[in-house]
Each structure stands twice: as structure tokens, then as C-alpha cells.
């Protein structure tokens, strides 16, 4: 399921897949320019979710890191 989603995102030009010739196999994914163009939308969705949680007196809790994260500490 995840592999299929990643392949579709790659085919659609949203992510770039880089395979490294090492053992064990290593693959890295990164956003393309088209993928990065989605960041404002994803950030708006994250902000909406964070605001909703605060309205419900709940704290955001996740283990994600990076530019697109639901954690308050990474909110821009």
C-alpha cells in the first residue's frame, strides 16, 4: 500500500526517489518543486488541525519532524 502510494506520487512528479547501491538496500524520497508547491496547502491544513485541537483543549502529539509537522514546536 505505501509502496504503491509512493510510486504514484513519483509518477505524478510530486516526489523524487533515489536508490543507493548499498547493502542493505537504501532508498530516499524528497519533494520535487511540484511537491514543494503543496507545502502552503499542507501547512494550512496543519494549522487548522492544531487550532482545532487547542479549541478542544487537546495538545498536538506526534513524532514527525521536518518542514511539514503537526507539532506546535515546529509551527511556523
Question: Can you describe this structure in just a few lines?
Answer:
The protein is an alpha+beta fold and 76 residues long.
Mind sketching the topology for me?
Layout: H1 2-11, E1 15-20, E2 26-31, H2 33-36, H3 39-55
Antiparallel strand pairs: 1-2
Provide the structure class: alpha+beta
| Main beta sheet strand tally, sense and closure | 2 strands, antiparallel
Distance between the termini: 31 Å
Rough outline: elongated
Mean pLDDT: 85
Count of DSSP H/I helices: 3
How would you describe this protein?
The chain has about 80 residues and is of the alpha+beta class. It folds into 2 domains: about 30 residues, no CATH class; about 40 residues. It has 3 helices and 2 strands; from the N terminus they run αββαα. A two-stranded antiparallel ribbon has the order 1-2. The radius of gyration is 16 Å and the shape is elongated. The protein starts with a helix and ends in a 21-residue tail after the last helix. The C terminus is likely disordered.
List keywords for this structure.
single chain; about 80 residues; alpha+beta; 2 domains; two-stranded antiparallel ribbon; 3 helices; about 40% helix; elongated; disordered C terminus
Amino acid at each position: 500500500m505505501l509502496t504503491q502510494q509512493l510510486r504514484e506520487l513519483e509518477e505524478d512528479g510530486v516526489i523524487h526517489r533515489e536508490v543507493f547501491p548499498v547493502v542493505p538496500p537504501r532508498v530516499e524520497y524528497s519533494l520535487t518543486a511540484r511537491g514543494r508547491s503543496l507545502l502552503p496547502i499542507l501547512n494550512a491544513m496543519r494549522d487548522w488541525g492544531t487550532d482545532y485541537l487547542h479549541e478542544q483543549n487537546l495538545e498536538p502529539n506526534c513524532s514527525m519532524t521536518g518542514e511539514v509537522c503537526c507539532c506546535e514546536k515546529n509551527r511556523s
